[in-house]
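User:
Hi there, any thoughts?
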Amino acid sequence: MTELIYYVAASLDGCIATPDGGVDWLHGFGAGGEDYGYHAFYASVDAAWQGRHTYEKCLDFGEWPYAGKPSVVFTRHALSTERRDVRFTHAAPDAELARAAADGHRRIWLVGGGALATACREAGLVTEYIISVIPVVLGAGIPLFAPGGRFEQLRLVDTRSWPDGVVQLRYRPHSTHSRGGTS
């Protein structure tokens, strides 16, 4: 089974970015060399998924943050790139997951944003949620998930905390209804 892991940082008030998509509020965390398990996580995934807004924000970073990992960008807009490791799609997430499995991908990082995470959650595709809660309150911003959607009960798998106040929560769904099994 191909796993789809929503690995994301969120403010204490549940935002993954400022209203304009900014993530500058994350700067300063990890300044002492702590990566909050990021490098081990990144080494464990073999592909990355993101929505168009997240993709466009990544382009502002200068260096492509997912080099060496095939990336799928979910969009309804006509986009192009010279990167061979980036592919655009307007397919449904379940169709892309079937394609990823056929391509041999075992663990996919669902980078974001909130709308794509909601679509994947609604389809019952997310197998794990790893949320690093950053000790800031933004007051407004892009939510961890888009509003609405079905109820989903999760079970806590692990927690970690660091001296700077970052708390990482790992959850798995009690069941993955559309994937025909329980976890």
In short: The domain at 3-16+38-168 is CATH 3.40.430.10 (Dihydrofolate Reductase, subunit A). Helices lie at 38-44, 52-59, 93-102, 114-122. Confidence is low (pLDDT under 50) at residues 176-183. The two ends are 12 Å apart (CA to CA).
